Amino acid sequence: xxxxxVVVLGSSFAGLTTARFLRAxxxxxxxxVVVDRNATLTFVPNxxxxxxxxxxxxxxxxxxxxxxxxxxxxxxxxxxxxxxxPEARRVEVVPSDRPGGAVEAIGYDYLVxxxxxxxxxxxxxxxxxxxxxxxxxxxGNRLRxxxxxYRGGPVAIGSARFHQGTDQKPDWLPVGLAAxxxxxxxxxxxxxxxxxxxxxxDAHKVTLFTPAHVIAEDAGEPIVxxxxxxxxxxxxxxxxxxxxxxxxxxxxxxxxxxxxxxxxIKIVLPDWVPHAFLVxxxxxxxxxxxxxxxxxxxxxxxxxxxxxxxxxxxVPKLGGLGHQQAEIVxxxxxxxxxxxxxxxxxxxxRPEILCFGDIGGHQGFYIHSDLWYGGRTxxxxxxxxxxxxxxxxxxxxxxxGGKPPAFGVPATHLLMDHLPG
Length: 421
Hints:
It is an enzyme of class 1 (oxidoreductase). The chain has helices at residues 13-26, 47-52, 66-72, 127-130, 137-148, 182-197, 221-234, 319-336, 384-400, 408-418; strands spanning 5-9, 31-36, 40-42, 62-64, 75-85, 90-95, 104-107, 110-113, 118-119, 155-159, 206-209, 237-239, 245-248, 252-255, 260-262, 265-269, 272-273, 304-306, 353-360, 363-369, 378-383. The chain is an alpha/beta fold.
């Protein structure tokens, strides 16, 4: 029989990790083709640390992925995905390394959608001229230039509204109004330290805002209460229920709620929007996120999987959730193809929030919680250990080429949940 072909769309965190887990479990029993328009992975979680240290993130936050796939025996295609046809089991791509390439079709036996989403800054009026963020090397360096010219005015940091799909949403998955609010917490705390370090002010100049009733709602109420109490004591401003960002201006931020904030620096996390070619497909919800069950399979097309931000179950859009999903996909295919025994025990997605944040001064915060999903775990700590763990994860990810050891997450919980804060 022909060797089954697994096509993985995406080679960032979710896609690279999935491809590596697949090869580790399936060996030469499958052909693996990985498609991504970029030949590098950008380590987005640590861009903020480089920016506030006035270092270029493009010099230290990029991981070349083609050589990793080549070492594993995978075929890497630097190409843009144009279309997915679940009925014909093929995808259409066009080379992305130079303009003008011809469209090609790639057939598959199994498909893993791990392309993440579009970050919809283009839907925020005034962002191009007045907004800042740290989601890429380009924007990180733009914020570095903005900070170099900073005149000491107010700073606003927060999220635009996230539009989550609800078609076929399971009852246990809440609806989030922000895609991921770990970064605003991290940026707010780190910016306050940066202001103090540069003798330009402190937390009183920083206001955090959220479209939701409470910021970082997915962390769970007890953790949010601890954070807000600490933020109030430090002097942070706080604006909730903004509904959405209406526009950015030179003077500040205007919200759909009618509220506004004066701000010289406006750092905004946008809406996470599915890629256009996923919209209206039989595998997607009404927004364009790929629908899956807890084994990360699409119910209408079980040969299609989704991991990371492209999956409808990934709420919030958090990297740690994609890691868990990648392991599930690899185990599912290993069982289906007879490489590993199937004992009938389901391999199910059990989401939990695992987040490390930099807060400046070589300190950080650690959040481990599943309260939002109906669990009982709620850990929130601050200190030097979370900062060290954040640095260590980036180093480990680069050294292992995107294949963290299986003991990584359990060891993290064992250490961080029980170390004093």
